[in-house]
Specification:
By secondary structure, the protein is α/β, with parallel strands linked by helices. Helix content is about 50%, strand content about 10%. The protein has 17 helices and 11 strands. The strands form 2 sheets. A 6-stranded parallel beta sheet has the order 7-6-5-8-9-10. It has a 5-stranded antiparallel beta sheet with strand order 2-3-1-4-11. α1 packs across α3, α5 crosses α7 and α6 packs antiparallel against α7. The longest helix has about 50 residues. The chain starts with a strand and ends in a 15-residue tail after the last strand.
Length: about 450
């Protein structure tokens, strides 16, 4: 099996495209089932967040796997694969490992180093484990990615730059509100993970009074009580909006919650001299309806706007150190897989030797029936010992060689020399200088052999 990553992120796709690709939590298992039901996809992990939707897969072939994954993503988006082509990225084999580790460490995040992605990756892995869609290859990849992410945050200062997306958005909001959120009335729409982070961050920054609303009133009440905030029913959204300066919108709704009508009615009840109403739309699909930004007295900060503003963020030194860690961890992972690939071949070789010894001992017993049990046992021990000593050094050496770049050739050579039948798992790392590619036409994409984005 080979590793293949296909996805879209804030780097390659506008919010409108990500909205179409996003998979609601309730549909994750069903989508994973659809993926592993495809002819070329044996394993799958699906990451679906506000900033990225990507599939990690173990596939039996590049073309077939790419086509299968694109078909599922296109079905999810309700669009033909060619309509998504310019917004999708592809990472194959070694580049897929590198991408996974970069995602886990926050190097690929909108806010470099943010730690929230590590939890999102963990959730995606748990979902795949629960759906039984992750096998040997993806179990190892995900476990190592999570470990590398933790290592990067523990050994470097990437957290210094790695503020959460919520914190970054609120920094932008502060610039629109005279640089200070302390004492500013604020509201959070949504009581999920992002909403909880919004309430916690607003509380830490001294914003208040704080209001929380959510479609599920019980969750809003629990979240509000945790931070001394007020919970209001969603039915009172217009009134609540009219009393605040900042709104963090982060629901899992499939339709906008802050519609043009709702916001316009709230503005009509709001004091004209209060300054702008700042709406932070951190949801995908959007919580703020298109067109709301055109209303006078409203500032909308969404994922697209954040990406443009944060593109020039400075965390170069910390990112360089994490990049060094990632490079070493990628090579270690590939070496482990190359070494693991030779294990079945070594086992098959030892099995062939055991079969030959057993056959020869059986023939000896027929030719020398006068041997006592002790004599037969001593002969058997001697022959086994000779075979083990003959095989020991070559098998130790082939394991060492297999862990080096291009090491797969040694396992192949053993199989050819001894005519061994070994199931081919073809782990990652057997294609040198694997490239990262953008799909142009998925059906015609050629397997990467050099460098592509």
């Amino acid at each position: 099996m080979k590793l293949l990553v296909v996805g879209a992120s804030y780097r390659t796709a506008p919010v409108a495209t990500l909205e179409r690709l996003v998979v609601p939590p309730a549909d994750i298992t069903r989508t994973l089932d659809r993926l592993v039901a495809q002819p070329y996809v044996a394993e799958a992990v699906l990451v679906s967040t506000c900033n990225r939707v990507e599939v990690y897969a173990a596939v039996s072939g590049f073309h077939g796997g790419l086509g299968d994954i694109c078909a599922v993503l296109a079905e999810q988006a309700g669009a033909p694969p060619t309509a998504l082509a310019n917004h999708l990225y592809v990472h194959y084999d070694a580049a897929a490992v590198d991408h996974a580790f970069r995602v886990a460490t926050g190097l690929d995040s909108m806010v470099v180093g943010e730690a929230q992605i590590l939890g999102q990756l963990r959730d995606a892995y748990h979902s795949a484990s629960g759906a039984d869609s992750a096998g040997r290859l993806l179990h190892e990849l995900m476990q190592q990615a999570l470990r590398v992410g933790k290592r990067a945050h523990a050994e470097t200062n990437i957290d210094r730059a790695g503020q959460s997306v919520v914190t970054a958005a609120l920094d932008l909001a502060a610039d629109l509100l005279d640089g200070d959120l302390a004492g500013r009335p604020a509201m959070v729409v949504g009581a999920g993970a992002m909403g909880s982070l919004g309430v916690a961050t607003l509380s830490r920054l001294g914003a208040g009074p704080l209001t929380v609303t959510n479609r599920g009133a019980d969750r809003a009440v629990r979240l509000a009580e945790s931070y001394g905030a007020n919970a209001v029913p969603m039915a009172e959204l217009v009134d609540a909006l009219s009393t605040v300066d900042i709104v963090v919108a982060a629901t899992a709704a499939t339709e906008p919650v802050l519609t043009h009508d709702v916001v316009a009615r709230a503005l009509a009840r709001r004091d004209a001299d209060r300054g702008p109403l700042v709406l932070l739309d951190l949801a995908v699909p959007r919580d703020v309806e298109t067109g709301v930004a055109e209303l006078p007295g409203v500032e909308v900060i969404d994922i697209d706007r954040m990406a443009a503003i944060l593109a020039d963020g400075s965390a170069a030194a910390d990112a360089a150190e994490v990049t060094r860690i990632v490079a070493g961890e990628v090579e270690a992972f590939l070496s482990w897989l190359r070494g693991a690939d030779v294990a079945p071949t070594v086992a098959a070789l030892r099995g062939r030797a055991d079969d030959l010894v057993t056959a020869e001992l059986r023939r000896l017993a027929q030719r020398r029936p006068d041997f006592t049990d002790d004599q037969r046992a001593e002969v058997a021990r001697t022959v086994h010992r000779v075979v083990q000593r003959l095989l020991h050094q070559p098998t130790v050496r082939v394991r060492q060689l297999a862990a080096e770049p291009g090491g797969d050739q040694y396992a192949a050579l053993l199989r050819e020399l001894f005519d061994l039948e070994v199931p081919q798992t073809s782990p990652v790392g057997t294609v040198p200088d694997v490239m990262e590619a953008e799909i142009i036409v998925p059906a015609d994409t050629t397997p990467p052999t050099g460098g592509v984005r």
